[in-house]
Design a protein that fits this description.
The protein is α+β, with helices and mostly antiparallel strands and 338 residues long. It has two domains: 187 residues, Fructose-1,6-Bisphosphatase, Chain A, domain 1, CATH 3.30.540; 129 residues, D-Maltodextrin-Binding Protein, domain 2. The chain is built from eight helices and 17 strands. Strands 4-3-5-6-7-8-9-10 form an eight-stranded mixed beta sheet, with helices on both faces. The chain has a five-stranded mixed beta sheet with strand order 12-11-13-17-15, with helices on both faces. A hairpin with a 4-residue loop joins strand 9 and strand 10. Helix 2 runs antiparallel to helix 3. It is globular and about 55 Å long.
Length: 338
């Protein structure tokens, strides 16, 4: 593999030097996440040989069957963060309650919300999966509690994901653009491979589970019909590209351009607000999208980054991707286009 020269650790340190007021804690936290990512990447790549494919037999707080690799990734991140000194409190998709780092006065300045292994139901069929993370400043001093985690996405100081596919890649932003780093397994280091990622202004692709078509809200249904209608002046019809792994679908759209939609589903009255989790799926990816020039909204037109969370595992509908495409989807969701 080509050596790109700039390592992720070097990039983070260079960014820190531009801010004389920086304490180094965010740098340290990101470096700890990088170590956890390398551990998870190695385990994912060995999964078929290490007897950790398949379900663990447990059901998580979301009511979903837990994969063995879910448990491994969750434990790897928690253990790495627990004694780092950078994190005051955590929230994981796999944990019902907030995870306190220390019983006494925690020195950590930040909160961490994460999905340890997004798309894990696809592990057995070798589809790309990933870790998604969101970082906020802790607001309650040395007595952190759940309210520290319930901050809108607009206040994130960093967010990103690690995708484990044909190569392992870390994509993140600290509010100064989006950068991607690819892992060179021969030396165990992430190198800068995608500097200053920008989503195209518009695209030719959309991602949605069309098997749920008859359960979509009217605005989403009308928008998809619009994308499928031939009109050469606006570049339609669009082509469908759907993997079924959020982090994989988003990554493809970030690099190549596209719009991803996971609207609410009228079949499930227990989940009337959508399926994807706000804190550790929708908000961090919305932060990345906006930093790369894109947008993220709900299927009724609310900006994902402006939503005030009410619960750790709050769910939202998600429309995310190239700005032009999301703008048009918003008009359909508001009934301004039909």
């Amino acid at each position: 593999m080509k050596k790109f020269g700039v390592t992720v650790s070097g990039h983070i340190m260079d960014s820190q030097r531009l801010h004389p007021e920086a304490t180094g804690d965010l740098t340290g936290l990101l470096n700890e996440l990088i170590v956890a990512a390398k551990t998870i990447s190695a385990e994912v790549n060995m999964a078929g040989l290490a007897d950790i494919l398949g379900m663990s037999g447990d059901i998580n707080v979301q009511g979903e069957y837990v994969q063995k690799l879910d448990e491994f990734a969750n434990t790897a991140i928690k253990r790495r963060m627990a004694h780092s000194g950078y994190v005051a409190i955590m929230a994981s998709e796999e944990e019902a309650d907030a995870v306190m780092v220390e019983d006494d006065c925690s020195p950590g300045r930040y909160t961490l919300a994460f999905d340890p292994l997004d798309g894990s139901s696809n592990i057995d069929v070798n589809v790309s999966v990933g870790t998604i993370f969101s970082i906020h400043r802790a607001s309650n001093g040395c007595r952190p509690n759940e309210t520290d985690l319930l901050q809108p996405g607009r206040r994130q100081v960093a967010a990103g994901y690690i995708i484990y596919g044909s190569s392992t890649m870390m994509v993140f932003s600290t509010g100064e653009g989006v950068h991607g780093f690819t892992l060179d397994p021969s030396v165990g280091e992430f190198y800068l491979s995608h500097p200053n990622i920008k989503m195209p202004g518009r695209s030719r692709y959309y991602s949605i589970n069309e098997g749920n078509r008859k359960f979509w809200p009217p605005g989403v249904l009308a928008y998809i019909d619009y994308l499928q209608t031939t009109d050469k002046t606006s570049g339609r019809p669009y082509s469908g590209r759907y993997i079924g792994s959020l982090v994989a679908d988003f990554h493809r759209n970030l690099i190549a351009g596209g719009i991803f939609l996971y609207p609410r589903d009228s079949r499930n009255p227990l989940k009337p607000t959508g399926k994807l989790r706000l804190l550790y799926e929708a908000a961090p990816l919305a932060f990345i999208a906006e930093q790369a020039g894109g947008r993220a909204i709900t299927d009724d037109g609310r900006d994902i980054l402006d939503i005030d969370p009410e619960a750790l595992h709050q769910r939202v509908p998600l429309i995310i991707g190239c700005r032009h495409d999301v703008d048009i989807a918003e008009k359909f969701s508001r009934g301004e286009m039909q």
